[in-house]
Request: fold
Amino acid sequence: MAAANRKSSDTNKSSEDRVIYREFGNDNSAALERAVPELPLSQQNLRVQASRKGRKGKTVTVITGFQAKPETLAALLKQLKTQCGTGGTVKENEIEIQGDHKQKLVQILTQLGYKAKISGG
Reply:
């Protein structure tokens, strides 16, 4: 009986009106996000490798080692995709370009000022 009375009183309140304990008062989700240090291009050591793992046999060139903001990676991705003539994406601070373009990507990245080398076989 007590559970039924408690439940009926809880249904009168909406979930938005509830006060939840917050240690710092207001919601500073932007302050809680982890800052990504943006290193100069010449200090970033990039690794370029071709991979087929988990992609149903399709070859993808993966560029790892970025220490840059997502906006910078998106702009770089667009430039690399147009120069290679293929598709690609950014996943977890890595750039994936469809196809095997290791040599071409290393050449493009070094021209842009990055320190890039081919990794793997």
Observations:
- The chain has a mean pLDDT of 83.
